[in-house]
Amino acid sequence: MSIHTSTATTAPKRLTSDAMSASLAREDQRVTAAPLGHALVELAQEDDRIIGLSADLAKYTDLHVFRDAMPDRFYQIGMAEQALVGSAAGLALEGFVPFVSTYSVFATRRAYDFLCLDIAEAGLNVNMVCALPGLTTGYGPSHQATEDLAILRGMPDLTIVDPCDAVDIEQAVPQLAAHDGPTYTRILRGKVPRVLDEYDYSFELGKAKLVRDGADVLLVSTGLMTERALEAARALEADRIDVAVLHVPTLKPLDEDTILRELGKDRLVMTCENHTVIGGLFDAVAHTLVRNGSGRQVTPVGLPDEFLDAGALPTLSDRYGVSTGKLVERIRAMHGAAHR
Amino acid sequence: MKTEDSTRATGERIPAETTVTGQKRLERIREAAFNIRSNALIQAEVQGQGYIGQALDIADVLAVLYADQLALRPDDPEWEGRDRCLLSIGHYALALYAALAEAKVLPAEELDTYASDDSRLPMSAMASYTPGVEISGGSLGHGLTIANGIAMGLKRRDNPAFVYNILSDGELNEGSTWEAAAVAGHHQLDNLIAIVDFNDQQADGKSSGVLGMEPVDQKFETFGWIARRVDGHDLPALLTALEELRAEEAGKPRCLVVDTKLGKGVEFLENREKLHFMRVAPDEWAKAHQQLKESYEA
Ligand SMILES: Cc1ncc(C[n+]2csc(CCOP(=O)(O)OP(=O)(O)O)c2C)c(N)n1
Ligand SMILES: [Mg+2]
C-alpha cells in the first residue's frame, strides 16, 4: 500500500474535485441542458417501444427528464447494475427498445457479463447510455471510465459511440434506436456544449466525418476530444499550422474507408481520445493502418496507462495532456520537430 | 454488558473508568461526535457542497467506533492488532477523515485540504491516499466482500481483531452485498460486524422509493447473521448494541442497522429538502457551526 506523498498546508485555496453533479461546459459556451433526456422524450413520443431504465442514477445521467415526462415508461431498478442490464435484455426480448443509463464504469466493469451474453450475444436492440466517460470527473478511479472502450471493443456485435457534444447526442438517439442491435454510447450530461453545428456536419452512425480540413496536421479524434481538437486547430492558425480534424464518433464498427482516405494524404497524424491510449481510438486506427499495409506514424494523445489521480478536472486534464492547451503544445512540438 | 475493562485481548483503548452507560464515557463519545461533525463542516466548506448530509448522519456511529470501540494505535495505523474498519461508501470520506482526525490518526490541520488538488484527503476515500483508510471505496457494493476475506485472514492468523464494514442502505441494492452476506453466514465469520447506515437516501431519492429493501435486519438474519437495529443517534443504544453483538454466540457474523437522519445536528440541514448532494450556500457555514454548537450544548 503506497501512501501518496503530500505536505499538508493551510496555504491558498486550491482547486477542488467537482461535485458529482457538475457539468463540463465553460461559462462562455453555447449549451443544451440534458440533450439525452430531451432527445429520448421526443423519440418516445413517436415510438412506443422506447423504455427508460436506470440504476439509481437517472438524475445524474439526464434520464430524469425522460422519467419525469413519461413515468409509466421508466423503471427505477435501484443501484443494481447487473439487474439493470438483465432487465433491459428481458424487455428487448418482449419487443421493447430499452435505453439504459448508469455511469460508464458500472456498465462496463460491473455489468459486463450481462451486457455481453444477455444482450450482445442475443443480438438485442438495447441501448446503453452511460455518463462520466474517460476523464470527466476528478473523483478518482472508481468513477473514471478510462478503459471502457478497451473493455468493450472486444465484444462482438456491439456498436460503440463516443459523441462530441449535444448535437451528436441529439442526432444519435433516434439512430441508436433504429439500429437493430446493441449499442453503447458515452454520454455527456448536464449543460452540454454545442460545437458541431458551427460546421457542415451531421451525425451518421458508423461514419467518420472530416469536420475541418487542413494541409499540415490531421487530428483523428473522438468524443469530447473533437471539441478540443477544433479549438486547438483554431489556436494554431496563429502559428500558421494548418490543422484538419476528422471526427470519429462511432468507434465500432470503424469507418475504415474514411480513415484510410484521410490518412493517405501527406500530413502529420495524431489521434485524440478521452480514454487510455490502450485499446481505444489509437489502437483502432493503428490496427486499420497496419492491416492495410501502411507504415504511417501516428502519435497518440490520450490518458496514460495509469489509475488517474483525484483532483480538479482542469488540473488533471493538464496533468494528463488532454486539455486544449496541452494539445496545442503537443501539435506545435510535433510540427516543429518535423520541420527542423 | 461488560462493566469493566471492555478492551479485548489485543486492544489498547477504553480504560475501565466507567460502565457502558457511565456518564463519563458517554460524555467523551458525545464530545467526539461533536468534534467529528465540526471537522466534517470544515471539510465540506472547502468543497462548497456535497456529502455533508451523510457525514452528519454517520457522526454518532463513528464517534462510538473511533472514540471507544475500535482497537487502534493513532501513531501506527497499520498495527497488526487493530480492528479493521472498512468504509465501502467512498463518498462518506469526509466523515471518516473527521473521525480519523478526532482519533489523532490524521492531523486536524490537514482537513481543509479535503478534495483539493494533491491532498491526501480525496473526495472519495482511497487506501492508497490516506493513513487509516483500509480500502478504496466508491464503487459501491465491494466493502462487505473484502471484509469477508479480511475476517477469514484474521482467523487463519489467530488474530482476535474484528473487522467492521460501514455500508449504506443504497449498497443493499447491489447483488454483491447479498453474495457477501451469504458467504459470511456460510463461513461463520463471527469476527465480522456490518453496520448499515439506513438514512433512507440514495442518489435518485428516498431509499424506500428507489428500491424497497425492508426488513433489512431480518434479511441479514435469514442469511445466517445476528442482527440488531437501533436509532443511529442514540449513543447508549449504539454502545450497548455493539458490545452485545460482539459478545453474542460464536459462529455467526453480526449486523447492526442504524436508522439515521441526513444532516443530523445542524437544524437547518435536518429540515432542508433531503438530497444525495445537500446544497449549502457560502454564507451558511457559520450558521451551521453555530447550530451544531447549540444542539451540542442543549
Ligand atoms: C456500483 C455503483 N453504482 C452506482 C454508484 C453511484 N452512486 C454513488 S452514491 C449512490 C447512492 C447510493 O446510495 P447511498 O449510498 O445510500 O446514498 P446516500 O445515503 O449517500 O445518499 C450512487 C447510486 C456507485 N458509486 N457505485
Ligand atoms: Mg443512503
TrEMBL record, chain A:
Highest taxon listed in the record's lineage: Bacteria
InterPro entries named in the record: PDH/Transketolase (IPR051157), THDP-binding (IPR029061), Transketo_C/PFOR_II (IPR009014), Transketolase-like_Pyr-bd (IPR005475), Transketolase_C (IPR033248)
Limits of the Transketolase-like pyrimidine-binding domain: 30-195
Pfam families on file: Transket_pyr, Transketolase_C
CDD domains from the UniProt entry: TPP_PYR_DXS_TK_like
PANTHER family per UniProt: PYRUVATE DEHYDROGENASE E1 COMPONENT, TRANSKETOLASE-LIKE PYRIMIDINE-BINDING DOMAIN-CONTAINING PROTEIN
Entry protein name: Transketolase family protein
High-level lineage: Bacteria, Bacillati, Actinomycetota, Actinomycetes, Pseudonocardiales
TrEMBL record, chain B:
Cofactor(s), by name: thiamine diphosphate
Name of the molecule in the record: Transketolase
Listed Pfam families: Transketolase_N (PF00456)
Domain Transketolase N-terminal: 35-292
Gene source species: Prauserella salsuginis
TM annotation in the entry: none
Family: Belongs to the transketolase family.
Highest taxon in the source lineage: Bacteria
